[in-house]
């Protein structure tokens, strides 16, 4: 390769490498802010400030969803392998909200250890299959909701 | 000597004449793949056990996102080749790739928003992947604008190439964002290593859609680049001859009927 071109190649590589390092450090420094939500284990370990607007995310524990008889009030528990968080919500839940599925809630964690949410988002997983296949995988029985295999990345 | 083929590849005229012949069969192929892929996905693939019909937007959303990311690399690599070898054609490819990438990024954000509402329960969330996808749109838009603001074409090409190179780090960040941070997005369904978590009856139309989008991207890039070649080479002899030939052709066509 021509020496002048080789030199320009090195400049191009230097631009990519140094800008990547800069962006990488920036993103690394902001990692706590880039996380969309706190996992239940952070609440159990008391690492989360109370009375501050933030998001929590985890698996909706099977059997924990209790709906009020006369209002839209609903309570449920978000869990991960190392913690759990009680959530109180007054509103309409998204269609994909279900026990054994992940959800992200937006609201305030108060002194009584209950998370008062004013928004609930459903987080769907990366598995796609037709209903017949899903049924066959459960041997025709009703799908039993579990939180066992839930992973969140990071 | 060994680099001669490479320099010939960088000739705008060579590319213009070759691509005229490619387009004859490549454009119909793209159209067929697009129609078959999209209609298979939207009309004939089975519904999803949890999301029902709303998951179908994956056939538009995911390939658009894949090409918005891959297109960024194409743009940046073209810019790098232009900077290193000081060739004309790579800069034209780089400039042409920017609006196509921007359009695909807009399509990704728009379809993602339409998918997010029925499934997540929101049109927009400040999720890591959403944020960096928005940054990608701004990078593309920045290059589209930067290419026009300089009075000197050489300066514009250089500035665009450097901006494109600086932005390359954003692509792996978008791709890995769902694994690095707690995110509303689900992890990847199609993995290069190991099995996919998407049923074959949905995977095949999705792969076909991805192929169709790649062809569409290539087609759009060729057409935009051809336009850019004509604009930038408008003072050369071969373009003047080409225009003359087209002109007399249309004269003959219209002059045939008195």
Summarize it:
The complex is a heterodimer of chains A (154) and B (258). By secondary structure, chain A is an alpha+beta fold.
Describe the structure in your own words.
- The complex is a heterodimer of chains A (154) and B (258).
- The longest helix of chain A is centred in the N-terminal third of the chain and has 27 residues, at 3-29.
- Chain A has 154 residues and is of the alpha+beta class.
- In chain A, a hairpin with a 5-residue loop joins strand 2 and strand 3 (73-80).
- Chain A has helices spanning 3-29, 31-34, 40-44, 131-137; strands at residues 53-60, 66-67, 73-80, 83-90, 102-109, 114-123.
- Chain A has a five-stranded mixed β-barrel.
- Chain A has four helices and six strands; from the N terminus they run αααββββββα.
- Chain B has a domain at 63-189 and 199-233.
- Chain B is 77% helix and 0% strand.
- Chain B is built from nine helices and no strands.
- Chain B has helices at residues 4-9, 12-44, 58-85, 88-119, 128-149, 153-166, 170-180, 200-232, 237-255.
- In chain B, helix 2 (12-44) runs antiparallel to helix 8 (200-232).
- The longest helix of chain B is centred in the N-terminal third of the chain and has 33 residues, at 12-44.
- Chain B is globular and about 60 Å long.
- At the A-B interface, helix 1, strand 6 and helix 4 of A face helix 3, helix 6 and helix 7 of B.
């Amino acid at each position: 390769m021509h020496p002048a071109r080789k030199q320009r190649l090195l400049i191009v590589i230097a631009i990519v490498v140094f800008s990547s390092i800069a962006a990488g450090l920036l993103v690394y420094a902001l990692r706590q802010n880039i996380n969309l939500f706190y996992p239940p284990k952070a609440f159990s370990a008391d690492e989360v400030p109370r009375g501050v607007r933030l998001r929590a995310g985890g698996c909706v524990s099977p059997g924990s969803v209790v709906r009020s008889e006369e209002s839209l009030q609903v309570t449920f528990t978000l869990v991960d392998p190392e913690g759990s968080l009680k959530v109180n919500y007054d509103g309409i839940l998204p269609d994909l909200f279900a026990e054994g599925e992940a959800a992200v809630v937006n609201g305030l964690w108060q002194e009584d250890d209950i998370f008062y949410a004013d928004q609930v988002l459903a987080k769907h997983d990366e598995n796609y299959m037709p209903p017949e296949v899903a049924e066959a995988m459960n041997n025709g029985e009703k799908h039993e909701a579990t939180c066992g295999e839930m992973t969140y990345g990071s | 000597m060994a680099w001669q083929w490479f320099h010939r590849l960088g000739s705008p005229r060579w590319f213009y004449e070759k691509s005229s012949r490619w387009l004859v069969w490549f454009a119909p192929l793209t159209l067929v793949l697009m129609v078959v892929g999209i209609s298979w996905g939207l009309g004939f693939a089975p519904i999803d056990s949890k999301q029902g019909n709303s998951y179908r937007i994956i056939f538009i959303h995911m390939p658009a996102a894949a090409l918005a990311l891959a297109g960024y690399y194409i743009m940046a690599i073209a810019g790098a080749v232009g900077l290193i070898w000081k060739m004309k054609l790579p800069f034209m490819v780089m400039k042409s790739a920017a609006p196509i990438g921007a359009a695909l990024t807009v399509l990704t954000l728009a379809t993602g928003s339409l998918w997010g509402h029925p499934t997540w329960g929101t049109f927009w969330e400040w999720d890591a992947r959403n944020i960096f996808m928005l940054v990608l749109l701004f990078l593309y838009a920045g290059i589209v604008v930067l290419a026009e603001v300089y009075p000197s074409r050489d300066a514009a090409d250089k500035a665009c190439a450097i901006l494109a190179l600086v932005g390359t780090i954003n692509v792996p960040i978008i791709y890995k964002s769902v694994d690095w941070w707690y995110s509303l997005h689900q992890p990847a369904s199609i993995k290069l290593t190991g099995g996919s978590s998407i049923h074959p009856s949905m995977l095949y139309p999705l792969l076909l859609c991805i192929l169709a989008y790649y062809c569409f991207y290539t087609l759009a890039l060729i057409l935009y680049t051809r336009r850019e070649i004509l604009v930038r080479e408008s003072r050369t002899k071969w373009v003047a001859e080409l225009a003359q030939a087209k002109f007399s052709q249309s004269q003959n066509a219209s002059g045939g009927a008195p």
